[in-house]
Structure formats: C-alpha cells, structure tokens
Specification:
It is a single chain. This protein is an alpha+beta fold and 277 residues long. The protein starts with a strand and ends in a 24-residue tail after the last strand. A hairpin with a 3-residue loop joins strand 2 and strand 3. The protein contains nine helices and eight strands. It holds the Pfam family Nitroreductase. InterPro entries: 4Fe4S_Fe-S-bd, 4Fe4S_Fe_S_CS, Nitroreductase, Nitroreductase-like.
Length: 277
C-alpha cells in the first residue's frame, strides 16, 4: 500500500502529478489515481506530492503540509562557488566535540541525498565521542599490524604497515588525524549502485558540514581496512554483512584556517557534438 490520497477540495485536475511521475502510473479520470495493480511500480520518490501546486496529494503517509516549502531562501551561486572552491581536506583538528544536535541535523539533511533507483538506503555509522573513537582506532591499527606481520597485505596496501608503525612507535595518527568524529557510509550490496550512493551522500555531508565551518577528510585508508584487510570490524560496529562500505570520513573543528582557495590545475572536458560528424 502506497496510500495515495487526493484531497478532492484542493485538486484542480491540472495533471502535473501524472505528467511528472517517473514510472507513469498516475492516471487522470478526471482526478489523479493509481490502480492497485500498478502500486508496486511506485519508486516512492514523492514527486507527485512535491509538484502538486495546491498541496492536494498525500502519499506513503506523507502529507504536503509537513514538507519544506521550495520558495524559501537558497544559497547564491557565488556563495556555492566559494564554498566548493575553498573546501580543504582537514588534517589537523581541535580536541573539541561538536554539538550533538548539530551533527544530528547535518545527518538528517544528508539523508535527502539522491540514490540509484531511489532506494534511499544509505546506512550511516557514526562515532561521535573520543572514547569510542580511541577504541575503534586501536582495532584498525591492530588489524593492519596483524596483516602486516602475516604478510597478507596486498601490494597496494603494504604502505599501511609503515603507517601502523608510526602510530605504534610515535603515536602519530596518520589515518584518523586525531579527529573527534567519524562517519562511515554503507549501503546494501543488492542495490543497483551502493558505492555511488555512499559517495554522493558523503559529498552532501561534506559541503553541508563545511557551510558550518566544520572540517572534513575523506578517509580512504580506513575504507581499505574495512573492505579489504579486516571486514569483520565493519560488522563489529553495526554495519550489516551484506552491505558495501562506501567510504569513511572524519570531521570536527579545524585547527587550521586557509585564507584562500587553491588554484585548479584546469578543467578536463570532452564536449561531444555528434551532429557535426
């Protein structure tokens, strides 16, 4: 049941919902409706709810009055350009925890990120306190040490053993950079695009976090440990076994400030024009 409900008093039979439905299952007769036999085709995208000009459509238990209006304030093009161009990978963090409510708000907004086939099933694993992150760090470095001593590291990951030694001998944390918080995105392997879904979600999170002056760092080394060196660790922290670990990201208050953007090496662009061939 997708609970497609029309408010007869508000519906003006404009047909926008039927025209915009990605799978074309809404019929006008004269009001919009969906036959029971076609409900299983619904992508649950809620486009019908979003596009209705008179807020006449409810679906999946969602009511239009509970949706954020689209005509409010938005970031300017110049503001978004500055945010993207001045984003930096942060490798030095203050030893301060972020406000828990702010982290929750960031994640709830990130959950709006698009996913393949509209599955909306990206799973976020959050470590938001120093004690748990310290224990998790120990697990990661121990896994690298065990694999390094057993000589089971793949050639492309052998450098991690040297990084583990730096941690063991000098307490220099190259992998986590002493960041106070960690976010890992994963998604069901059976989905059509689990890895891209995770990367898109974390990209949304990063830009949103940066808009609050929160530093972030994409953590490839952690991701390799969870996927290739000791996948059992992922399950130990609550990531389902049948999920793909997309990527990890550390974040927190930056201990450094960059007064200006870098200068790009330039755009690599392949512009296709088949009509002139």
């Amino acid at each position: 049941m997708i609970d497609f409900i029309i408010d007869e008093n508000k519906c003006i039979t404009c047909g926008l919902c039927a025209q915009d439905c990605p799978v074309g299952i809404i019929n006008m007769n004269p009001k919009p409706g969906i036959r029971k036999s076609r409900e299983k085709l619904c992508l649950k995208c809620q486009h019908c709810l979003a596009i209705c000009p008179t807020a006449a459509i409810s679906i999946l238990g969602k009511k239009p009055e509970n949706s954020l209006p689209a005509d409010g304030e938005r970031p300017t093009y110049e503001g978004m350009t500055r945010l993207i161009k001045t984003r930096r990978s942060i490798r030095k963090y203050l030893h301060e925890d972020l406000d828990q409510n702010l982290i929750q708000e960031l994640l709830e907004t990130t959950a709006y990120a698009p996913t393949g086939h509209n599955y909306n099933s990206v799973h976020f694993t959050l470590i938001d306190n120093k004690e748990d992150l310290d224990l998790f760090r120990d697990k990661i470095y121990a896994a690298i040490k065990k694999a390094g001593e057993a000589k089971t590291l793949l050639p492309q990951f052998e450098f991690l053993y040297a990084i583990q030694k730096v941690w063991e001998n000098n307490q220099v944390d190259v992998i986590f950079r002493d960041a106070p918080h960690l976010l890992i995105a994963s998604a069901p392997k059976k989905n059509s695009s689990p890895l891209p879904d995770c990367l898109i979600a974390l990209s949304y999170f990063e830009l949103l976090a940066n808009s609050h002056d929160i530093g972030t760092l994409w953590n490839g080394m952690l991701t390799w440990v969870l996927n290739d060196i000791d996948p059992d660790i992922a399950e130990q922290i609550g990531i389902p076994k049948d999920y793909t670990v997309g990527y990890g990201m550390v974040f927190g208050k930056s201990a450094v400030k960059y007064p200006r953007a870098i200068q790009s090496e330039g755009l690599s662009l392949n512009r296709v024009n088949l009509t002139k061939k």
